[in-house]
Design brief:
By secondary structure, the chain is an alpha/beta fold. The chain has helices at about 1-30, 60-70, 80-90, 120-125, 250-265, 295-315, 395-400, 420, 490-505, and strands spanning about 35-40, 70, 75, 130-135, 165, 180, 185, 195, 225, 230, 235, 270-275, 325-330, 375, 385, 390, 430-435, 440-445, 445-450, 460, 465, 475. It has nine helices and 22 strands. The structure holds 2-acetamido-2-deoxy-6-O-sulfo-beta-D-galactopyranose and calcium ion. Calcium ion binds next to loops.
Length: about 500
């Protein structure tokens, strides 16, 4: 009896094991681990690339990427400035849900809670090697702020990256040094770095007091520390050996990104490559200077295009192209004069950085966050153009589904699985999306509703229409992508639907 019983148990156990194994195989077949490279450009407008219609500047590499992948015509950053968009792409959460996610000063503490699930931490759990190269601008260090001469943590490594080579904030904010993992790279301990966002340090010259020392004048702001002849935001002294060279930033970052790919070619990797281009100050390398005919802003676009070409070439040469998802997008819309007299305005030559959209960086209008968005996966995705409504927020959940990672309830609350849209099967995408600038807006189908608000209509410094109005605004984007005709008064029923939809978030 005992033997029969245990025999039966054995048979049952074998059957269950078989079933579990079959199910695991099934799951394994569904989940995949392609490499993921996310190239995150800075301040690049929808209309700044020729595949989106630019005619005055040509971006052959980005165009080739688009022709091999899906070019989204309705892709959005979550915000019209950098820090909140970056917060969102990494956490899958709207930044406006959390305090302290506005444009971060260069000495801000880390603004992402290390307990959160992030795009890189999720991919780490899926077995990926993860790296961040380029602009960070999400703060470093605890509440005391960063210790530039000591250990810089928490930072990228504490939110899911195995490796980082970053610029702490922006190129117009001090300190003008790279950080590799937990330390300022090339720092000479005998020449420590001092940083203040309050007052000049010692007798350091400033853009305000010593304009004769500047090689590039500021048009507004940017008159604190002078580094490499350029006025910056914030004061700094020391760290001379560690200072970056502005004309070599693109080349340096591109080489670091390529090395990360080469070093990790044998295992699944995720590379978050946030370029400095085309943010100010624009100091293109000698191969690009004067080449666009549109001044340094156009030259920086050519340099960015070169960067994209270099990454594509590296993937090709390692035979990784087929099995790598390459996403190309921008953190917010375009700005021409963002604080330096670099002739970008004078030499614009009829180029329209925001394409068909109104406003630009900082704006509630679509120029603010309706950005270039390309996804290429040659092994799996048929090339094309898609009008599906997609957000950068969606990468977290989509890639978690792709790689078979279940997310906790709290993780990525605003991130939706858009794998079907990203792979071109679903042409519709999201139901709606909320965009954040001075006010909040909701885009649902063809409608865009902008909440009334008190802010100025135009930012005179950057010469951008901000889209603020004390009255509600409603636009029919299908007929009026340039948001010229406010039809709120004609469609009270649509407002009555969109206003609570926005407020419910
Ligand atoms: C603004 C800066 C601008 C840019 C921006 C952040 C001034 C006058 N303007 O405060 O130059 O740095 O912040 O841009 O200082 S972002 O793309 O990182 O959001
Ligand atoms: Ca930006």
């Amino acid at each position: 009896m005992v033997n029969m019983k245990s025999g039966l148990a054995l048979v049952v156990a074998i059957c269950i094991a078989g079933l579990v194994q079959a199910q695991q195989k099934g799951n394994a077949a569904k989940t995949q681990r392609p490499n993921i490279v996310l190239i995150y450009a800075d301040d690049l407008g929808y209309g700044d690339i020729s595949c989106n219609g630019a005619t005055k500047v040509h971006t052959p590499n980005i165009d080739r990427l688009a022709s091999q992948g899906i070019r989204f015509t309705n892709g959005h950053a979550s915000s019209a400035t950098c820090t909140p968009s970056r917060y969102s792409i990494l956490t899958g959460q709207y930044a406006w849900r959390r305090k302290g996610t506005g444009i971060a000063p260069g000495d801000a503490p880390l603004i992402i809670d290390t307990a959160m699930t992030t795009l890189p931490s999720m991919l780490q759990s899926a077995g990926y090697t993860t790296g961040a190269v380029g602009k960070w601008h999400l703060g470093i260090g605890d509440q005391k702020g960063p210790d530039w001469n000591g250990e810089l943590k928490p930072g990228p490594l504490e939110i899911g990256f195995h490796y980082c080579w970053i610029m702490p904030a922006t190129a117009d904010r001090v300190p003008c040094v790279y950080v590799e993992n937990h330390h300022v790279a090339n720092l000479d301990p005998k020449d420590p770095i001092k940083v203040s966002y309050i007052a000049p340090i010692g007798d350091e010259p400033t853009g305000k007091n010593n304009p004769e020392l500047l090689v590039m004048k500021a048009s507004h702001g940017h008159n604190n520390a002078i580094v490499n002849g350029i006025g910056r935001i914030g004061f700094m002294q020391g760290g001379t050996a560690a200072l970056w060279k502005d004309d070599l930033i693109a080349a340096t970052l591109t080489a670091k990104a390529q090395h990360f790919i080469i070093d990790n070619k044998a295992n699944p990797f995720f590379l978050y490559f946030a370029t400095h281009d085309i943010h100010v100050p624009r100091v293109p390398g000698k191969d690009f200077l004067g080449k666009s005919g549109l001044g340094v802003r156009g030259d920086a676009i050519l340099q960015l295009d070169w960067t994209v070409g270099q990454i594509m070439h590296t993937l090709d040469s390692l035979h990784l192209t087929q099995n790598t998802i390459l996403v190309f997008t921008s953190d917010n819309g375009p700005v021409v004069d963002d604080g330096y007299e670099d002739q970008a305005v004078e030499l614009l030559n009829g180029h329209t950085p925001a394409g068909p959209f109104r406003g630009g960086k900082y704006s509630n209008f679509d120029g603010g966050a309706h950005i270039p968005f390309i996804v290429r996966w040659p092994g799996k995705v048929k090339p094309g153009v898609s009008a599906a409504l997609v957000s950068q927020l969606d990468l977290l959940r989509s890639f978690s589904v792709l790689t078979g990672q279940s997310l906790s309830k709290a993780a990525g609350p605003d991130s939706y699985n858009m794998l079907a849209a990203f792979t071109g099967k679903d042409k519709k995408g999201r139901e709606s999306i909320i965009v954040h600038a001075g006010a909040l807006s909701i885009i649902k189908g063809k409608w865009k509703y902008i909440q009334p608000g008190k802010g100025p209509r135009i930012d005179r410094n950057v010469n951008i229409e901000l889209g603020n109005d004390t009255l509600p605004q409603l636009y029919d984007l299908s007929k009026d992508p340039g948001e010229k005709n406010n039809v709120a008064a004609q469609h009270p029923a649509i407002i009555a639907e969109l206003k609570p939809a926005l407020n419910s978030h």
